Amino acid sequence: GAGVSQSPSNKVTEKGKDVELRCDPISGHTALYWYRQSLGQGLEFLIYFQGNSAPDKSGLPSDRFSAERTGGSVSTLTIQRTQQEDSAVYLCASSFGTGSTNEKLFFGSGTQLSVL
Amino acid sequence: AQSVTQLGSHVSVSEGALVLLRCNYSSSVPPYLFWYVQYPNQGLQLLLKYTTGATLVKGINGFEAEFKKSETSFHLTKPSAHMSDAAEYFCAVSLNTGGFKTIFGAGTRLFVKA
Questions:
Q1: Binning pLDDT at 50, 70 and 90, where does residue B53 land?
Q2: What is the count of residue pairs from A and B with beta carbons less than 8 Å apart?
Q3: How near does any CA of chain B get to the CA of A8, in Å?
Q4: Which chain B residues contact residue A48 at CB under 8 A?
Q5: How confident is the model at residue B113 (pLDDT cuts 50, 70, 90)?
Q6: Who contacts B23 (Cβ-Cβ below 8 Å, separation ≥6)?
Q7: Residue A69: predicted pLDDT
Q8: What pLDDT shows up at residue A1?
Q9: Which of A14-23, A92-101, B36-45, B54-63 reaches the highest mean pLDDT?
């Protein structure tokens, strides 16, 4: 597609339920990121996929959070047993990942997650 | 590990005044440095970046930033603020650590007063 696509754009769930957030990166981008944007908390790094390398999961806040990337393209972020503090905008970004001087991130519009 | 610190979560300036948003980074190797902007109800977009070469870089909408290695800083400036500059600004650093993982600062919200 022309840009990074995220779905759903909004998700309301009940505390304790599991949710799955999807990201479809730009075709040809080998690097994919998940960030979380909470009010007053800035942009928090969650996880980073680069090609076929093992993902950098150092930003995941708890073991309730996991992510996978299938076939080097689409990624799914899963939050199990959601808590109210998980409410935030979850942003996905992708890039060529080559480290060239053209490197920059392209962001999706995000998924607004509300946990009631 | 790299990190990014943005001084001031909120900055308020008058229209026509100088805009200065501060960013300091820590890194063991020369990083790539970025400023991204998020306008109200819009997605994040790149404002400008430093990778190599000239340390003063110019971006969109009259913004520029200077990479100062000795101060580990990459402050964002604009000589004259416009109402349309009101947005949240994020400084980011990217290192070649087997990939180009990008870490963001906490962001600075810029308010522009008429």
A1: confident
A2: 69
A3: 15
A4: 99, 101
A5: very high
A6: B4, B5, B6, B7, B33, B35, B65, B73, B74, B75, B76, B91, B105
A7: 95
A8: 53
A9: A14-23
Contacts for B29 with CB less than 8 Å, ≥ 6 apart: B95, B96
Q: Which residues contact A100 (CB under 8 A, 6 or more apart)?
A: none
Query: Residue A7's pLDDT band (boundaries 50, 70, 90)?
Result: very high
Interface check B60 vs A, CB under 8 A: no
Q: Tokens 């980073």 identify what position? A: A48
Block residue for tokens 């060239």: A100
A38 in Cβ contact with A61 (< 8 Å): no
d(CA B44, CA A109): 8
Dist CA A1 CA B23 (whole Å): 34
Pick A72 or A109 by higher pLDDT.
A109
Confidence at residue B98, expressed as pLDDT on a 0 to 100 scale: 62
- Closest alpha carbon to A115 in A12, A2, A40: A12
B46 with A51: Cβ contact below 8 A: no
